[in-house]
């Protein structure tokens, strides 16, 4: 196959991990006989520095013309001034919206080799396999926002809103995923307080009852979910929720496998290229040190082969190579639990070696 892949390295550890993902892409191309061409484009803080915009028009056009997009991470202290004219994160939200990527798939699976890397007890974490579906182009992230001065002090606001079609389409994605898994969907909301959550709950229940009567379905309030997620995580199969709740719960969920540096994600719309990225950020505290865990990005690359290129065997080969790399016992510092550790490139070396077969 011939495919065009856009790489958006971004900021902080973004370029370090994207370099390793590109080696994985090249290795897959050689092993399976594909022509995969990668081109790099600007997004985030680096794009602000070089063009004044976190999402240049040229980058949008390249992403839309690609078969898939692989992103590192954006943001960092250099661009964090609250009164700045623009922000790196605006570029990320912008590309998700431009490409219509309303469903963000975030699998959380505890790898057997890493059970002791989790800060949680083995008997809680063993066997965890949750598939989060986070709504990605609506909710409070994209509602009306503003600031105004009243009597010398200020007020600021962000509106959280969802429409029926926005809820329906993301719940359908979750239900379709559940059909191929253990057949259970959990919808997470704050319907005891928020009107927007009451609409979410009504529409989700209707979609599930009308279209997926054979699936098990439950609703959980988001505050309780934050607790259940670490007390009985094995009870969850597919979890569907809004943009903000999904953002927060999945960072929490990363402690089940043991590190943010392990969790990949896929952002999909209705047709068109998908966007693949680790769920973590630019990790300014370790950027430039060569110690970032590249596995989240490498697993996101596997998702890209599966969901955008239709190459499931290649995706499985990458996942098996990550497994084999972990079997060697080598660990980056985030999953080493204080024992000796290796760097970003060495970790990727183990994956590439296993992938070469
Ligand atoms: P973060 O995810 O960057 O880091 C949180 C913690 O996890 C840090 O201690 C970091 O060192 C660690 N960590 C993250 N990824 C790691 C990896 N691959 N290997 C080892 N350790 C890893 O979150 P933050 O520090 O709150 O945010 C930093 C910046 O990143 C902010 O500007 C934020 O807006 C941005 N951000 C971007 C994305 C994205 O581009 N998708 C996602 C989240 C945060
Ligand atoms: C993520 C990040 C982003 C989000 C930020 C950087 C805009 O935290 O991808 O999880 O909140 O969606
Ligand atoms: Mn996040």
Tell me what the structure shows.
By secondary structure, the chain is α/β, with parallel strands linked by helices. It contains 12 helices and 12 strands. It has helices at 14-32, 45-51, 57-65, 88-98, 122-125, 164-179, 195-211, 222-231, 243-253, 295-307, 312-327, 344-356; strands spanning 2-10, 35-40, 68-73, 103-109, 129-135, 145-150, 153-158, 184-189, 216-221, 238-241, 264-268, 274-278. It has 2 domains: 1-102 and 266-357, Isopropylmalate Dehydrogenase (3-Layer(aba) Sandwich); 129-255, Isopropylmalate Dehydrogenase. The two termini are 21 Å apart. The model has no long low-confidence stretch (mean pLDDT 98). The longest helix has 19 residues, at 14-32. The strands form 2 sheets. The chain has a 10-stranded mixed β-sheet with strand order 2-1-3-12-11-4-5-10-8-9, sandwiched between helices. Helix content is 41%, strand content 20%. A hairpin with a 5-residue loop joins strand 11 and strand 12. The structure holds nicotinamide-adenine-dinucleotide, 3-isopropylmalic acid (IPM) and manganese (II) ion. Manganese (II) ion is lined by residues 247, 251.
Whole-number total of structural domains: 2
Oligomeric state of this protein: single chain
What would you report as the Rg, rounded to the nearest angstrom? 20 Å
H/E series: EHEHHEHEHEEEHEHEHEHEEHHH
CATH architecture of the largest domain: 3-Layer(aba) Sandwich
Q: Low-confidence segments, ≥5 residues, pLDDT <50?
A: none
Number of strands: 12
Small-molecule binders here are: nicotinamide-adenine-dinucleotide, 3-isopropylmalic acid, manganese (II) ion
Briefly note the CATH topology name of the largest domain. Answer: Isopropylmalate Dehydrogenase
């Amino acid at each position: 196959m011939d495919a065009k892949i856009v790489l958006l390295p971004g900021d902080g550890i973004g370029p370090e991990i994207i370099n390793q993902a590109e080696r994985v892409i090249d290795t897959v191309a050689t092993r399976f006989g594909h022509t995969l061409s990668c081109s790099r484009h600007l997004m985030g803080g680096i794009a602000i520095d070089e063009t004044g915009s976190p999402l240049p028009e040229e980058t949008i056009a390249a992403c839309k013309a690609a078969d898939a997009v692989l992103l590192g991470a954006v943001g960092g202290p250099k661009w964090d001034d609250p009164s700045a004219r623009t922000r790196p994160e605006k570029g990320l939200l912008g590309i998700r919206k431009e490409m219509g990527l309303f469903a963000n798939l975030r699998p959380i699976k505890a790898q057997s080799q890493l059970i002791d890397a989790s800060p949680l007890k083995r008997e809680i974490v063993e066997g965890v396999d949750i598939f989060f579906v986070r709504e990605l182009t609506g909710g409070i992230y994209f509602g009306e926002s503003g600031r105004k001065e009243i009597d010398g002090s200020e007020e600021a606001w962000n509106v959280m809103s969802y429409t029926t079609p926005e809820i329906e389409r993301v719940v359908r994605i979750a239900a379709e995923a559940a059909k191929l898994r253990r057949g259970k969907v959990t919808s997470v909301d704050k319907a005891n307080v928020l009107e927007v959550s009451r609409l979410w709950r009504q529409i989700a229940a209707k979609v599930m009852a009308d279209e997926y009567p054979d699936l098990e379905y439950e609703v959980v309030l988001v505050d309780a979910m934050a607790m259940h997620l670490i007390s009985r995580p094995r009870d969850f199969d597919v979890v569907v929720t809004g943009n903000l709740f999904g953002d927060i719960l999945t960072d929490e969920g990363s402690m089940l496998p043991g590190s943010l540096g392990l969790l990949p994600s896929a952002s999909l719309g209705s047709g068109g290229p998908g966007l693949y990225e680790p769920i973590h950020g630019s990790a300014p505290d370790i950027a430039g040190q060569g110690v970032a865990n590249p596995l989240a990005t490498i697993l996101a690359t596997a998702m890209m082969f599966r969901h955008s290129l239709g190459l499931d065997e290649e995706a499985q080969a990458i996942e098996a190579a990550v497994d084999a790399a972990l079997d060697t016992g080598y660990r980056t510092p985030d999953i080493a639990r204080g024992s000796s550790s290796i760097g970003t490139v060495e970790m990727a070396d183990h994956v590439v070696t296993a992938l070469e077969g």
